[in-house]
Amino acid sequence: MHNGGVSFWWQQVGLPSPADPLTGDDVCDVAIVGGGLTGLWTAHYLREADPSLDVRVVEARFAGFGASGRNGGWLSSELAGSVRTYERAAGPEGVERLRAALRATVDEVIGVADREGIDADVVRSGVLMVARSEAQRQRLDGELSAEQVAARIRVAGAVSGHFDADCARVHPAKLVSGVARVVRERGVRVHEGTRAVRLEPGAVHTDRGTLRAPVVLRCLEGFTAGLAGHRRDWLPMNSAIVVTEPLSDAQWAEVGWEGQELLGDEAHAYCYAQRTADGRIALGGRGVPYRFGSRTDVDGRTQEWTVESLRATLTSLFPSLAGIGLDHTWCGVLGVPRDWSASVAYDPATGLGHAGGYVGSGLTATNLAGRTLRDLVLGASTDLTALPWTGHRVRRWEPEPLRWAGVHALYRLYRAADRREDAGLGRTSRVARLANRVAGR
């Protein structure tokens, strides 16, 4: 089994070599820090709106090195954050506007991929969420019976389900590399191999020189903590994925899954999965949730006990796959604000802006955030700039060691709640409710 190497997705398409690093001090109109999908989409839409702008992207490794090239491939309309948080900002109507914008964004991303010739194994297959206990059934409140779930995917122990058509399967590395190609073709320079160390109004200070610009946008998601002064802004939460060997026709006949839906569950320590284009199952979930001091992984390497935990989840869902080989495992970080809700912001007075904190639901949200940043930078008042995540502020995370102790205690509580519910508790565990209060969710 291959461990790390950034991700299985990048191993399939080939790891790129960093190109066009910054060579000393330079100037531009817009400097975007972070070469993931948030930064790339922002660059794409800014250049599309105003081709005269000199837009640059600064990236420490290569475009798509982070979560954009490691995620589970869910192009989903799932809300990136807490309903209650957004309701406090804009009421239920504001939440519905954000949900509608995310649903439309699924089609926007697919449309860009079609127009620009980005072959990212896209299948608009929807997502099937399943409940495997009475407590999960109550939380999910799904419209599908156990029999209807089994007609789609034969998940062991499923008692109900919910199907959402507004979701597509994608190959993450193919998508982000395609967007990076399009951005470069539009004249945006992506300075790879260039690590930003400090931001200030009008300047990005890197290990290869200073890039000065009247507009500086931070789009680093889980790697935000690596910037000077930002260690406690967003917590880099860890998630891990395993990919099986290709399943045989007989194994697929046992599992079902002919519709290629995305698959998730309603557990507190949830899992997420896809049937890949080449006939494997990619399944992810929490490993070590957080590393002390907001440290991030080394090229996606993950721990053996995490692999075994994910293997156990896989065979719990599909007992007929017990003993199946795992070909690859990797991990990565996602950005988690203290209130678990994403934000997009820009201050015209300083020229500083940011987007992110998607709490694991960012593949679609990156595109919406990029278009919103475009409007904010260009000074346009639009439906996007009126969404409830625009200008959202949140307090910082606690200092260490409270941060480390709190996050690890939190996930111990969630796992304990899952064990109680799996043992037959007929409602959501009070342990999980306590964890949600501690988390600020």
TrEMBL record:
Question: InterPro entries, per this entry?
Answer: FAD-dep_OxRdtase (IPR006076), FAD/NAD-bd_sf (IPR036188)
Name a single GO cellular component. Answer: cytoplasm
Q: Where is the FAD dependent oxidoreductase domain?
A: 29-376
The record's Pfam families line, in alphabetical order, gives: DAO
The residues forming a coiled coil are none
The UniProt entry, under SUPFAM superfamilies, shows:
FAD/NAD(P)-binding domain (SSF51905)
Its domain of life reads Bacteria
* Name the UniProt record assigns to this protein: Glycine/D-amino acid oxidase-like deaminating enzyme
